[in-house]
């Protein structure tokens, strides 16, 4: 469903900025340093978890100044909603994963259901090793941990830097918490 311009502006006006673009830049630099230390000699295959990780990939990959390749997987459990359901696989690059050092790149670790299943799928598909990195981790229990985390934020519904609200706001230049009234 599309938001009208009035609805869009009202959601933005009520949202709270939790992390600024400048803070995200610093977090991305730290993530790149940690990933470089762990992967620079591994010729990894970076798997972007579509759709949310598209911004993370665009901002992080140019900071990784070493030999790597990029592919994507598409797994989704929110599909525009503010509560997650079953994970739906739309693209699982099984053949490309065998024997590779995999870096899974996602926008957020929330319940951890997505990341846990993606990690398991990479092992099932014969990865040589699996590392994971997320831009944002919510302060709450998760089914699994990410190896590299950008920022840790409160357990609220978020948008920006790839995270959507009703399929909008993935391009927002910060991490914003949606107002209770809009959830
Ligand atoms: O830790 P979890 O509770 O499993 O949630 C994290 C997942 O939720 C979002 O994906 P979503 O299903 O919304 O798809 P999207 O990437 O297309 O936004 C996000 O990109 C993560 O993959
Ligand atoms: N957009 C968005 N997607 C999510 N997936 C899991 N948690 C979130 C969240 O807070 N915002």
How would you characterize this protein structure?
By secondary structure, this protein is α/β, with parallel strands linked by helices. It has one domain: Rossmann fold. 28% of the residues lie in helices and 30% in strands. The protein contains 5 helices and 9 strands, in the order αβαβαββαβαββββ. It has a 6-stranded mixed beta sheet. A 3-stranded antiparallel beta sheet has the order 1-9-8. The longest helix is centred in the N-terminal third of the chain and has 19 residues. It is globular. The structure holds 1-O-pyrophosphono-5-O-phosphono-alpha-D-ribofuranose and guanine. Guanine binds next to strand 8. This is Hypoxanthine-guanine phosphoribosyltransferase. GO terms for molecular function: hypoxanthine phosphoribosyltransferase activity; magnesium ion binding. Keywords: Glycosyltransferase, Transferase. It catalyses: GMP + diphosphate = guanine + 5-phospho-alpha-D-ribose 1-diphosphate; IMP + diphosphate = hypoxanthine + 5-phospho-alpha-D-ribose 1-diphosphate. InterPro entries: HGPRT, PRTase-like, PRTase_dom.
Question: What is the end-to-end distance?
Answer: 15 Å
CATH fold annotation: Rossmann fold
Order of SSEs: HEHEHEEHEHEEEE
Radius of gyration: 16 Å
């Amino acid at each position: 469903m599309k938001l009208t311009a009035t609805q869009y502006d009202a959601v933005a006006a009520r949202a709270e900025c939790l992390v600024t673009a400048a803070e995200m830049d610093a977090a991305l630099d730290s993530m790149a340093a940690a990933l470089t230390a762990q992967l620079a000699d591994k010729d990894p295959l970076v798997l972007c978890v579509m759709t949310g990780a598209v911004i993370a990939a665009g901002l992080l990959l140019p900071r990784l100044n070493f030999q790597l390749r990029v592919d994507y997987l598409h797994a989704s459990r929110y599909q525009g909603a503010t509560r997650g359901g079953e994970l739906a696989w739309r693209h699982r690059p099984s053949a490309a994963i065998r024997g590779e050092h995999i870096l899974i790149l996602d926008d957020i670790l929330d319940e951890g259901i997505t990341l846990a299943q993606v990690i398991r799928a990479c092992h099932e598909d014969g990865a040589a090793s699996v590392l994971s990195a997320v831009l944002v981790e919510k302060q709450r229990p998760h089914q699994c941990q990410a190896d590299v985390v950008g920022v840790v934020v409160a357990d609220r519904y978020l948008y920006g830097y790839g995270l959507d609200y009703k399929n909008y706001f993935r391009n927002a230049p910060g991490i914003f918490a949606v107002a209770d009234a809009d959830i």
